[in-house]
Specification:
3 domains; 12 helices; 8-stranded antiparallel sheet; alpha+beta; Immunoglobulin-like; TIM Barrel; 9-stranded parallel sheet
């Protein structure tokens, strides 16, 4: 439990069994500042620019105990207190004693040698020390590196370049190598600043409801956090037994799928996001946002879905929480009063999504949420025969609209992905399909894992760039896994192709190698399919892809074992090295390789133009996945031929014999293909 320890000039917040203070307060170095400010928000196509216009900020230098469990803090001894802190187990409950307050800054003590992880799904950095991270769900941007021409171009076009901290899925939670985790119970815009050597600064544009603390080693903290925020169920067997093939060519998709299967591709699903129709834009091929079967694009689709199911293959589609204004479902929602409204009238707030407008289904209205779950997902998708779908977006909620429940959109914005996830989960539950059908999301916030069974890494650029390429899918999986997202995957091949950035054969081969060692292996044609290589564009690509899909299917029993652990204790399937080796400081910052379950160390190639890579093996007994040879701990320059990314097995793995047999068989097949 937490407790206050007082001295002549302040207090320390201590926890039983934890030697270091979790909070320190003194009159000269107060733990809290509060104040008032006005937010200036500019949004363009899911990209945001937020600035604060402060009215005042006050250091809360004066503190007094009103009981053993309660502290009140104020600007000085002669003025009324402004904040009350009340102990509640491992929570510090916060009450604003002045209703005008809407800005908060908490300073927590830091250690020189402390490392920090978390803040949701971070794409650029796993280890966060030395940087600050604004927490606001948004489009992550294209390039995400201000020194790149493509980022500069996208910034000039529609603020769409992004930065190292922009992410679909932030979360105000961090883990410390000092043996604790901190979560801020607040949905407003926040900034977690880890740049100072002696303190961490947590800023919020609202007064939090509580600050929560957890204690333990990293793996124990992840287990506690997953329990706190919600654990996903086991994925169904069909999702693990090969690749989900993403095609958006209408009826021709079935012909291409048949050719892939004839070439030896292990197929678990066919994902046709264009099942609802397409809309061609300057960005590329997009979808018609009216979530019903488009019979002109997919004729006889019910019969084709049934035929696939007879072959053990599921059919997947696409939806998002918006409705195109030129579609019939928009009119249905508008007539029922289910759309969010403009501030100045009772007309729907239509969002510009780039060359078309769409209405926002208002999930703060229980009737609207139920309508979307039953009328759209239930009737048009699950009853129709879909076993999965991409539940896209969730990050775009504007801050200048009117919601049914009267909540402040500045508070609702970050919470929106969680409401969206719950709508999808409620639809599954209503049809008894929880754990059988699967939806996957990119957007998130605190608690999304309680509803969303599968996360995906969003829209990578189709290249090897440091902040937006293939490597960010690994970093995203490792960071998201720390806060309760056990199941993670990415678009095999990447997604975003703009301004001359297109897929190369080398990139595709490296994506195949990586995705074979993720729980779900799913391809995507990208935003410009005709401009880019696809998995079946050449015989060489198709043969390699088929090889890696068969490896993915062969690893399914191991993945199920790791999945059972995820369900039981919340550890993700793709794990940062420090989760199992917390004392190994080298592993604290490794973000381009990962433990896959307990027993596999996977090091995909994410650098262009190389046939080998550095791999770090922590102190343990390791065997080469492909040869069975013993490998010492430490750094290695490992060969990484196409089809054989560096992979190692713990020598005491319960499934050692099975894993080495899979590795040897795959190596022989890869050598024969080469």
């Amino acid at each position: 439990m937490l407790g206050f320890e007082w001295n002549d000039d302040g207090f320390a917040l201590m926890a039983a069994g934890h030697s270091a203070p979790l909070m320190l307060h003194a009159s000269a170095t107060p733990a809290l500042r509060v104040g008032r400010g006005l937010a200036d928000v500019h949004m363009m196509n899911g990209n945001f620019r937020l600035t604060n216009q402060p009215e005042y900020m006050l250091d809360l230098a004066f503190a007094r105990a009103t009981s053993a469990d309660c502290v009140e803090l104020g600007h000085d001894a002669g003025a009324p207190p402004l904040i009350r802190l009340m102990l509640d187990g491992m929570r510090l409950r916060v009450t604003a004693l002045d209703p005008a307050l809407n800005r908060w800054e908490l300073r927590l003590p830091a250690q020189d040698d402390e490392q920090i992880w978390g803040c949701g799904e971070q794409m650029s950095y796993l280890a966060l020390r030395g940087r600050q991270f604004p927490l606001w769900t948004s489009e992550p941007g294209v390039g995400r590196d201000k020194s790149l021409k493509i980022t500069q171009t996208m910034d000039a076009f529609n603020m769409a370049g992004g930065d190292y901290w922009t992410t679909n899925y932030p979360q105000p939670t961090f883990l410390s190598s000092a043996g604790h985790a901190v979560h801020v119970d607040c949905d407003a815009y926040q900034v977690f600043d880890f740049t100072a050597p002696d303190r961490h600064r947590l800023e919020a544009w609202s007064i939090p409801g509580a600050i929560e603390f957890m204690l333990g080693k990293p793996a124990e903290l992840v287990s506690q956090l997953s329990q706190r925020f919600g654990r996903q169920p086991m994925l169904p067997d069909w999702a693990l037994n090969g690749a989900i093939i993403g095609l958006k060519g209408g009826n021709a998709s079935f012909t291409r799928l048949a050719a892939m299967r004839a070439a030896g591709v292990a197929v678990s699903g066919l994902w046709c996001e264009d099942w609802c129709g397409i809309r061609e834009t300057s960005f590329g091929r997009r979808l018609f946002w009216d979530w019903q079967w488009n019979a002109g694009r997919y004729t006889d689709l019910p019969d084709k879905i049934a035929a696939l199911r007879a072959d053990g293959i599921g059919f997947l589609g696409y939806t998002n929480p918006y409705l195109a204004v030129d579609g019939p479902l928009y009119q249905e929602a508008k007539a029922a009063g289910y759309l969010a409204l403009r501030l100045d009238s009772d007309t729907p707030y239509d969002v510009d999504f780039g060359e078309f407008l769409a209405g926002v289904v208002d999930f703060t209205n229980p009737a609207a949420a139920k309508w979307f779950a039953d009328r759209i997902i239930g009737q048009e998708m699950l009853d129709f025969g879909l076993v999965g779908w991409m539940a896209d977006f969730g990050e775009y909620l504007p801050t200048d609209l009117r919601l049914f429940d009267g909540s402040d959109p500045m508070e609702a914005h970050n919470r929106w992905p969680v409401l969206w996830a719950k709508v999808n989960a409620d639809a599954l539950a209503s049809r008894g399909q929880t754990g059988e059908a699967v939806f996957f999301m990119r957007a998130g916030w605190t608690g999304v894992g309680a509803h969303c069974p599968l996360h995906w890494a969003g829209d990578q650029l189709v290249d090897f760039s440091r902040h937006d390429g293939i490597n960010t899918a690994i970093t995203g999986a490792l960071s998201a896994g720390l806060v309760g997202n056990a199941w993670h995957h990415a678009d095999c091949g990447g997604y975003t192709s703009l301004h001359g950035v297109v897929r190369t054969a080398e990139l595709m081969h490296r994506w195949f190698d990586f995705c074979a060692f993720t729980p779900v292996m799913r391809t995507h044609e990208g935003n410009r399919p005709e401009d880019n290589l696809q998995v079946d564009s050449t015989p060489a690509l198709l043969a390699h892809f088929a090889l890696m899909t068969r490896l993915h299917a062969a690893l399914a029993p191991y993945v199920r074992t790791a999945g059972a652990e995820a369900v039981a204790i919340g550890l993700p399937l793709m794990r940062a090295v420090f989760l199992h080796y917390p004392q190994d400081r080298t592993g604290w910052t490794v973000q381009d390789q990962y433990l896959y379950g307990n027993d596999l160390m996977v090091a995909p190639v994410v650098t262009q133009g190389t046939a080998s890579r550095d791999v770090y093996l922590p102190e343990d007994n390791w065997r080469d996945f492909y040869t069975g040879a013993a490998v010492a701990a430490g750094w290695h320059q490992a060969g990484a031929a196409t089809g054989r990314p560096p992979v190692f097995v713990q020598a005491d793995a319960p499934m050692l014999a099975e894993l080495l047999a899979i590795g040897r068989a795959h190596a022989a097949a890869a050598d024969a293909l080469a």
